[in-house]
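pinned: reference chain
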Amino acid sequence: MSWGSALASAVNAATSAARAAAGKIASTARAAYDYLTDEAHQEKAKRAWDATQDTAQAGGQKAAAAVGEIYDRASVFFGGGSKPGEPIQVCPMQDLQAPGNSQWGGHPSQTPVLPVEDFHIVAVEWLDGTDTKVIGDCDQYVNLPQDAKWLGDSDISNIDRLGISPRFRVRFDRPVSGSFKWRVVPVGGDASEYSGAEKKRNAKFVPGKLDWTSASTCGDGTVIMVNAAQLVAGGGYKFKVEAKDHHGAVVSTGVITTKRLFWYSELPMLNLSSVLSSTGTVEAEFAKHHLVMKQLADLAIPHQQNIGSEAEVTTLKSNISAAVAGNPTAVSKAPYLLRVAYTDHLAVKNPSRPQRVDGVKVGPGAAAVKIPVSSTGLRDGDGEAPRWLWSNLVNGEGWFVSAKYMPSGRGAAVILPANKVSMAGDLVRSRSIEVDVSDLPAGVGTLIVNVNVVDRMRGGLAFGGTPNICICTRAWWNTVGHHDQACTVVHEMGHQVHMVVDGSGNQPDRVTTQYDKRGHVGSHCHNGCASGQEDYSTSDNVKASTCVMFGTVNGKVAFCGNCAPAMKKVDLSAGF
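pinned: its C-alpha cells
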C-alpha cells in the first residue's frame, strides 16, 4: 500500500475524532524527518509529538492500526523512525527528552536524536550499454547522436559512449529512497579554455552541472541519471561526476574523455596515374586533436581530366553523389561522412586574353614575332602577371582563340590562321607565343592574339555546404607526390571542420593568424609570415609559413600552435 492509500485507509476507518488524530499523526512523521535533518525544527517536532500524544488515544483502535501502517510507510520513505507509543532512540539510549525543556521530562544537557536509517552512498558510475553494466575510464564521442546506427564501422561498443550527455548511475548500500548531491568536475583539458564569448555563442561549449545539484534515488537505492551531466562539444576534455550522501561521503566516476568521430570514403577517378597510397598521415594528424577518422571502402567515379568550370564541378558532384548512393554503408553515415575525390588537374581557365604588340614589322623575310603571355587574374586584386597557356590539360581544349594584324593607317585588318601562331619553346607548356608574319604585305602595324591562359591551379578543393573534397594528382603538368597529396587532404578536411575559424557562428574564437583572401581563396592561417600583408601568395610566404592551413600547399601536414586549440574546441555535432 502507498503512503496515499494508507492515509485514505486511516481516514475511512476512523471515527470523526479519529480522523483528526490520523491527520496529526501523519504530520508527526514529516516533523520527525525534519527534526532528523535540521535541528532548527526541534520545536516543530515537539509540538507535533504533543499533539500526537493528546489525540492518539481518542482515535481508537481502528485509527491506531491504520496509523501504524502509515508509520511503516513513513519509515521507508523518510529513512526510519519510531511509532507513537514507542521510545525514540537517542544518544545515549533513553526515553525521548527535549533539550532544555523540563516539560518534556528531560534535562538541559540531554539532546534527543531521532533515529535514521544509516544508509551510505556506494558508487556513482558511467553506464555502458545496459542499466547495470558500468565502466571506469572511457572515451565519449560527443558529436554523434545516441543512436545504434552510428555504432557500425566505428569500434564504439554501445550507444552509452555516444552523445554529449552520458548516463550515470548512483547507488546506495541498501534499498532506500535517499537524497544525494552530484556535480560534473573537469579533470584535464580544462573546459575553462572556452572563452566567455564562445560559451555565449554555443551552449555545447558549457559543461554542466558544475555546482552541487540535489537528487534522490528510487526505493531500491539506485537511480539512473539521463541527460543530466553535459560534457562539451570539443575533443580531449576530461571529466568525472562526483556524488555525495548526507554524511558528506564523496564517490566519483572514472574519467571520461571527449572525442569526435567521422567517416570518410576516397573516390579516385578511373584511370588516374597516381593517387595517395595511404591516409595514415592524415588520420594521425587529426588524432592529435581528438578527431577519430574511420575509412570506408573506396568508391570509383568516372574520369575527368580537370575540375575548373562550374559545369565540371557540377558533373563531379553528381558523380560523387551517385557513387555514394550506390553504397548503403556510405549512405548510412551521412551527415558524418566526408567524400574525398581525386582528379588530374584542378586548373582554372581565364579565357580569351588579348596579347597586343604595336609597331610590328611584317612582310616577306620578316622575323617571327615572339610575344610573352600575360594577363590580369580572375580574382579580385590579381594584377597583370605572366600566365601559362591553356594547353594539354583537357582533350579538345586549346589555348589559341584568334589572331589578327592591323596595319598602321587605314588598311583593313588581316585575320591570321591558327597555323601562323604557335607556342614558343616547350611543346607541352609555355608562357610565350610566336607569330609568323612573313606572308603579310610589307608594312608596320599591330598584332592582337587572343589566347586562353591558366589563371591558377589548386591543390585541392573543399566544396562549402557539402561533404565533398577534391584533390588533384597533377599540377602544372607534373604528378603531385604522395606527401603533398596528404598535406592537401589534411588542409581540405581542415576546411570541412570549420578551419580556419574566424569567431563567427557557433564556432570558437578567431585564430590570431587567420586571414581571408589576400592572395588566396577562403579562410587560412599565415602563421610564420609577417602579419598585415595584402598578398600572402608570394614564394617567400610559402617558404615562411608553418601551418597546413596556409593558403597553398607548403609541405606542412600539421596544424600550427595557433590553430590547434581551435581544432580541439570545434563543434562537429551537425556533421558536414
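why pinned: The CA atoms of residues 371 and 433 lie 5 Å apart. The longest helix spans residues 42-78.
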